[in-house]
Amino acid sequence: MSVPHLSTRTRLSEVRYEIRGQLARRARELEAQGRTLIKLNIGNPGAFGFRAPEHLQRAITDGIAHSDPYTHQQGLPAAREAIAAFHHARGTPSASPDNVFIGNGVSELIDLSLRALLDPGDEVLLPSPDYPLWSAATILNDGQPLYYPCRPERGFLPDPDEIEALIQSRPRGKVRALVLINPNNPTGAVYPRALLERLVAIAARHGLLLMADEIYDGIVYDDGIFQPLAPLAGDVPCLSFGGLSKVHRACGWRVGWAVLSGDAATSRDLHHAMDLLAALRLCANVPGQLAIEHALQGAATIDALCAPGGRLHDTRRALIDCCAASAHLSLAAPDGAIYGFPGVVGAAAQGFDDHAFALQLLEEEDVLVVPGSGFNVPWRNHLRVTLLPQAEVLGEVFARIDRLLERRADAVSASQVSVADAMPCREVA
After folding, report:
1. CATH number assigned to the domain with residue range 10-50+304-418, chosen from the 4 options 3.90.950.10, 3.90.1150.10, 1.20.1250.20, 3.40.50.2000
2. How many Å apart are CA 194 and CA 72, to the nearest integer?
């Protein structure tokens, strides 16, 4: 008996997640063959020897005996109180436990909040490059991404005038939300206050929900200053996302939160919708929530890692130095987060395809990176690397990258010489 083909959702064909996609699958095949790879595709601190702070680990072990029951769909009361106090201290309006939603990582809350907001065909303003989960969650909740460019020549910062023009080009009410990722993944850009104020004004004029992905809020370098969005938003509805995964190096605990601020009457329906969806999934992981209060009220253990002499600072310095020393790479130095987004320039960039190069780098040099086009940009000459390895490891990675780019540049130059030699000479009268 023949079994009919089992089809899947059509819109999945529009979703991409190169961070764990085709190249990562090929990497697993190579590792199964005995190859040793340097994998810089995922911002996963625990895979590079980082540990969650001991006082957070103790909070979970001390409270684990009381974590068996379901909790409230929005999260443990004490955890929500700690998150509300943290946001109140930095100026978030209406920062109360009732406006806090705890989820299984920020990823779940992004999906949940877009499901609460969007009707089929609604559009969401997303940065390009973006963290591709935002695009995927928009698409899978029947929305449509509307990308605003964050170009390398502007340090990967957006132009508010371009964003406003995009909104004005769409039917009134079609665009529902403006997403900001600050500090930015994949570029490391940190948004200045004046820029954020202009974006808030745009959201106010057009009745948009601000959605601020601030999961890297404590990771800034040198003169970088993180400015939270909610205090600037005032009465404009704003969802601020944070969690334990990056600043507190606890990715596997799957603990994230979203704080809804702004005028309560304006956002009442969104609050009810998110509460309903949170109830349908019962509750978030309870043991991980036990660490939230201690994380937000304890020492800022990330600071030493980001300061001069700290591990993240040293690896960022290595990235900057490697790109500066290369004839084939350009870099807008990351001011925050745990990534670099270098671009290929010069002869090596001619006909460059980031995915093909990333595959070649994996096959020939045992290094796994993410092609820049996987972050929803129209150009194909960038790569994303994480800053989590030791500085000397990153230096070795870029020596291998430069070796491939040098061969590529030489081949391009040789091809141009061959074409020039093959051109017929014109006789001189």
Report:
1. 3.90.1150.10
2. 38
